[in-house]
Amino acid sequence: MKKIKIAYWIITACTLIGFALSAFNELARTPETFVSTTQHLGYPAYFLTLLGTAKVIAIIILLIPNYYRLKEWVYAGLTIDCISAFWSEMAVGNPMGSIKSVVVLAFVMLSYYLLLRMEKGRLTHNRSLGIENS
Question: Per the UniProt record, which residue ranges are transmembrane (predicted)?
Fold first, then answer.
């Protein structure tokens, strides 16, 4: 259980750092992010604020202990973000740009898998102690 927890936090920290950097660039509207999103991909400028804010909320929720059901929603949102980024890059003819989305999605999925393993271990441990799970 301890090894799974350590692996979870290493993978999740790497994932969250990537999303935090992305959120910062979107909320700060850095020139490179602004141009690549609005001109290259064709999204409206307000989309940067929406996307950056959603990522900040996701990061906060994943850092808060417990709330496993809410975390599942966060992982669903991050998965949708990665798939949308992949599809957007492919739609504008940039397959190399879509590779990053696939790598990030792999980290998201691995983090989620390890969260499920930790939750299963917690439930099993509590059951062995006779503690009612909520």
Answer: 7-25, 45-64, 73-92, 98-116
φ/ψ bin of 99: left (φ > 0), alpha (ψ from -120 to 50), beta (otherwise) = alpha
Encode pLDDT of 17-43 as tens digits.
999 999 999 999 999 999 988 898 999
Q: Is the pLDDT of residue 80 over 80?
A: yes
Residues whose CB is less than 8 angstroms from the CB of residue 133 and which lie 6 or more positions away in sequence, other chains included: 123, 126, 127
Return phi, psi of residue 66, to 5°.
Answer: 65, -145
- Sign of the torsion angle spanned by Cα atoms 113, 114, 116, 121: positive
